Amino acid sequence: MRRSTDPGDSLVGLGTRLSRIHPYPAMVPDELALSLVSRFVPPDASVLDPFCGSGRLLAAATRSPLRVGIDINPLAWLLTQAKFAKVDPRRLRAIIAGISRAEGHSPEPAFLVGPTERKVKWFSKSVIEELSRVVQWLNSLDLSKNESLLVAAALSAAVRDVSFAREQGWKLHRLDAESRRKFRPCPWDRLARRLTYCLEELSKQSSSPCGRTIVKIGDSRTLACSGESPVAKYGPFDVVLTSPPYGDSRSTVQYGAASSLCLSVVSHLIGFDHLRASGGSIDSGCLGGAPVHRKPWFSPKPYWSGADQSPQAASISKYLSDYDAVCDGLVDHLSPDGKAVFVVARRSAGGYRLKLDEFTIDCFSRRGFILILREERPLSHKRTPRLINRFGRDATRRGSASALVPTMNSEIVVVMARSSVPGVKRRSS
Ligand SMILES: C[S@@+](CC[C@H](N)C(=O)[O-])C[C@H]1O[C@@H](n2cnc3c(N)ncnc32)[C@H](O)[C@@H]1O
Q: What is the pLDDT of residues 387-429, one digit of tens each?
């Protein structure tokens, strides 16, 4: 395997559009997103990201005539849309100025926002009340569609800031009791800070992204059979540029929990009620979640060395089968000389690494593609903890050595193209 020192080194420090608008699990580092676009996405190429997340890869492809993003998570839809919202900085400045006038003068909230179904308390009573006032005030403003998108994304980030979720948390972990007691965040202030960041970023931009951006909430496992999807409507695509989840949501990243916390507030904004979703429903739509397609599932054997009959093996098998179903749909929507550019990793699952790079290569090879590049990149610029505690919420088991499991130390870029394209040759690995 070719091991890169770091293909994006010269781009370190550069950001994609509104890159820090909201923390999102497993974001592709900015410099990697920019480097992949400069190497594999010609300016006239249409791009599809079927797992768009916070939209960083699409946000790097600003010169493309068409960007289509799909994600099962409504929060991903919001963040990706917000990154492409064209907003006049003067309007944004006026909204920020309005915050300091509204704070302290807003009337009693007519309703309370926040999670209703959660047993664990994620907000103090006063924060819930202030968040409800903020939402009520925002709903009273006359905002355009683009302004609403940007404000909703900033509010979502502010909601996480004022919750009891740990700032550097890998999964949704709570502050300890003592920290919760001392924690007195101000939702108005956090919203103003988040919007000020957007204002600074937008004021720096010399030009808006070219072309169109289409983002849909949807399940990429059904691409092969959904004739009505935006992928069928706008495809075929020149490049699929994506970073899928590196494992199923039970054993790796749970996108649902943290996302639904933010959405439980944002969905009270006018025009955003379609974003309400429980953590469970988001996670069950993720790869390896509730079944959508046929058995038998893939054997994890060549890609993972754990015990065949274990519950972990069944989860991995389900996840890999879903992954294969996505690849099946993608090849139908790639133009004849199109490329699939995947950022993957070998995550530890049940003590063994899952070789997702090899599985990706095999999925495309079975469908007439060949590997043109495989490049490993150390995770030097991603805020990923080297060890995580797999019993994060269980205080009784947290201290044990077996609770600490290694995460990933590198990401792998895999580029595949159809073998029938003239001039495409297998790259020596
Ligand atoms: C590694 S993240 C993508 C991160 C993104 N590239 C970024 O930089 O923010 C993987 C994404 O896949 C999404 N996902 C998982 N299963 C999905 C499915 N079946 N259909 C569509 N999206 C899915 C998750 O919600 C998550 O946002």
A: 555 544 444 554 555 555 556 679 999 999 998 766 655 554 4
In a domain, 26, yes or no: yes
Q: Domain check: are 197 and 61 in the same one?
A: no
The total domain count for the chain is 2
Task: Check residue 386 and give its pLDDT.
Answer: 56
Residue with tokens 């683009």: 146
For ligand 1, say whether the CB of 27 is within 6 Å of any of its atoms.
Answer: yes
Is residue 277 assigned to a domain? no
Segment 241-284, tens digit of pLDDT? 999 999 987 777 778 989 999 999 999 999 999 999 999 999 99
The boundaries of the domain holding residue 92 are 85-208
Probe ligand 1: pick from 51, 215, 219, 223, max atoms within 8 Å of CB? Answer: 51
Distance CA 275, CA 262 (A): 10
Going by alpha carbons, the residue nearest to atom 5 of ligand 1 is 53
Domain end (from 183, 208, 233): 208
